[in-house]
Model the fold of this input.
Amino acid sequence: MFIVNYKDLRLSFNEFHDLSDGDTPEYGEYCLLELKTGGYTAGGWHPSGKGHTAAGKFIRGTADTVASEEVARWHSLDRYDLTESLETEGVNWINIGREEEEGDRNVQFEGFKSFADRRRPKEEQFCLLIMKDGRLAAGRWNKWRHTAGGAFIYSSALASHSSDRVWAWTPLSIDETFAAELERENEKKREKRLNRNPAADPELFKYGTDIDTYYEKALEKLRAEFGWATVPMMRKQTPVWTIAPLHGKYVFGQTERNYFDNSDIVTPWTGGATADEFIDFLCGYTRDAVKRSDPGKRFKLGTDINAYLEKAFENVKKDYRWLDKKMLGKTWQYDIKRIDGDLEFVRRYRDESEYSVCDAESAEQFIEWVEHDYQSLALSENKTAASYEPRFGHIEIHGWNLERYVFYKLRSGDYKVSVTAGDRTTGGSRDFFITPDCFEAKTYEEFLDRYLEIVPESSFGLGKKDLLPDKELQKFLGY
Done:
């Protein structure tokens, strides 16, 4: 356990090495760096050629490096363990290396802070670290989102030292990355000050600064064409418009959350200079959303959800003959509910309590969505009885490689095919039901013509030239 008071601690670095003399670190060695500008940072050494060449770079993080030409001297961090000194009572000065250098050849660091005292570096600040195992390190601070902790990035691929492994830290010199972060923070503070009492242009905001007023005025105009229009229908066109302060003035804008710091990013409307021009713009912006929400088209079968579900079930049952209504409880549950005053198709999964809106443009589209759900359910409920996997070589499909292509015979006597494709980082699989009308074909070749309309070669890799000569597949499919 370390008993030294980190607040009084000073580290004295001696035995610096001069890159200009060709004295370089070992490959990958992490070093404290004295820059030719007089500042200090750190990084892992990566020479640009073979052998002990002074040409290369010190890597601090992903796309974050220091060229050897910028470095005057370096001092190893990897070669030292301070455990013994930190476990000795009364120590407030630790020499790193032999005390042979004098004057400005010796470099000292102090002002250490600790996470134990709820002290944290500023975002993107590069720091010298004393780890809890007594070793030295360095890294650029990145706070974890939504939690109190964070990590010091020190190498490529976001290699990092977690804050819970750091005993004490102190800042190194300001660099371009940290300077940019400081400027961004200062800009946020300036913006916050400006927006405390924003001004409102009387021409632009002659109806006030409540956005609902402008939606209501646009609604009056839209109802001349779409009698069913409502503000909730208009707000389906996202992102919605709001009135927000920006640079000390109110603006019509669209606001999104900045993922990195939880601040609001406001994109202002620039299409005019008056309130009435904005209202006209708002009419055009929301027109398609209102048009798609025609309740006469959406609820042409009435407001009983069973009418739509029964239609979908009947359509799916024609091909998926084994589908039973008892199965339907295992998948999405649908209803028609009034949301913000408007009727909406909604769905929830199995026994979940929360519904989500299905923004279908028409009854036909909603029924198609339900049919797709029922088809997927039917396939999952029909277990496989046998399989056949055609042989194929390397096949590339729009940048993805075909990995598996398997025909399955189901217990009901029907067939499906499963296709899997991917690249080095991702992939996916899809199942396709081979509809009964394909098997009404009199010949295997005619069957393939129908089948390849469901699973086309251009999208999924195998075509007629691959499947027609396959006698085993022909037999597997009953031809």
Q: What stands out?
A: The chain is about 25% helix and 30% strand. The CA atoms of residues 326 and 381 lie 11 Å apart. Residues 176-194 form the longest helix (19 residues).
